[in-house]
Amino acid sequence: MKGEGMETFVVENPIAGKQIPEWMRTVFFDREKDIIYVPGTMADFLCVSFDGGPMVVRGDHGYFSIKWFQREKPKERQSYIELETRIREMITKLDAMLSARKGEG
């Protein structure tokens, strides 16, 4: 999947004075399938490919289902669960803001 039809979110640079590449701060959300995609490594790309899991490729970078990371990386599972919660909270807030703006117009 190339990332078309996806909602794209880019987090601001979190560390003052250090430039984090935009691709590392980008998240995709497929609202129709309710899948959040986060950036991964080449090793993740190969593993997801072998697993037949969903992925988004944008430029030279792969983004993989956060649920895949939760399942396949048990040592980091809790971090990925917390990340998913924060992303979903952000999406809910943005949806509410957009809905409020539509109501004003």
Strand order of the largest sheet: 1-2-3-5-4
Determine the structural class based on helices, strands and strand pairing: alpha+beta
What would the average pLDDT be, to the nearest integer? 90
Shape: globular
Give the strand tally: 5
- Detail the poorly predicted runs: none
Give the N-terminus to C-terminus distance in angstroms.
35 Å
| SS element count, helices | 3
Strand content: 15-25%
Helix coverage percent of residues? 40-55%
Q: Provide the number of structural domains.
A: 1
Radius of gyration based on Cα positions:
15 Å
Order of helices and strands: EEEHEEHH
Question: Can you walk through the features of this model?
Answer:
With 105 residues, the chain is α+β, with helices and mostly antiparallel strands. The chain has one domain. The protein has helices at 42-51, 66-72, 77-104, and strands at 7-10, 26-30, 35-39, 55-58, 61-65. Helix 2 (66-72) packs antiparallel against helix 3. The protein starts with 6 loop residues before the first strand and ends with a helix. 16% of the residues are buried.
